[in-house]
Amino acid sequence: MTDRRMWKYFDRLPLESEANIVTLGEGGTPLLDASATIGAEIGVGSLVLKAEHLNPTGSFKARIASLAVSLLRERSLAGLVGTSSGNGGAAGAAYAAAAGSRIVLFTLSDTLAMKRLEISAVGGAAFRVDGVGHDAASTRRVADMISSAARAANFYPMLTGYHYAPEAMAAVETIAFEIADESPGLTEVYAPVGGGGLLTGLYRGFDRERAETGTAVPTLVGAHPEGASALPLALAGDASGMATPVTSTVSGLQMAVLFDPEGAVSALQSSGGRSRAVSDDEIWQAQHLLATRCGILVEPAGATSLAGVIADARDGRLGSRSHVGAILSGAGYKDTASLARMVGSEEPPVISVTEVGGLLENLLVSHEAGV
User: pLDDT-based confidence at 370, cuts 50/70/90?
Assistant: First the structure.
């Protein structure tokens, strides 16, 4: 394997033989420098963006799926079974197909159409379950049932939380390894929070780097929608989740309860970090800013970390001495409605061939004149 990407950290991952690796090229995502654009505008010393949306299935969940399916192959398991808001399911389905295996998914009832299409296109079987994600008790109940059934039926649980699949979730730690290798001087790293697994994995990865290389652990900040408040509740000592349904419309972060409350809380407390609530409007604005200032298209969940950075900079928590990283977790194509919201409904005009010359001349002259 010449381009190992995530798997260059094979010796840090819980797989016994490299012969069992199932890969589509996950990991090794670029760390994009936005210091001269967004960073300068909000007044931070530097800003880098970890482009996890460029993974093979359009989100960081590709890392987890790669390791999960590799473990499935090594242990001769029958398949994957899991729950998902969309990205984890799409990743699991793609990697199961690559391994000649199968997956059964139980998703949110309102999982985005594009994510459902991704799952179906590669042969995944999915059932939408009312209440999952939005209601804390239903979410935990279904996840517990899936975990128990997976063990009984010789399936691997495709549940993206350390509580349910700690071995597969170790793949998330490779994000921290890559950041520490490329930009070891970051003072803060912002991550979007749904179930808490990404935040937990980042801390575990950075803490391992600290133990092995002496690299300092950055302050971790968990950015979440105001209408999905499981993280601040857990920080206050209540891991049971929200008493009312999730009101945020941000796909992927609509979690009324954390899968990894202990890990997420420990990640923030041990790194001197905090949670940061942002409104859906702030998230959409950050998504638009990434598109228009950096040419980066992410779904709203993928822009939530940047929304948190902008909000903290506005409130004086960040400044010229801050060297900030933000995780862009999911690709823009997954949420076409959010892209349509950015550009509006007006279609480009249709013109005749004979009109092209005059229009070109007018446009180019206007450009040269600075109009």
Answer: low
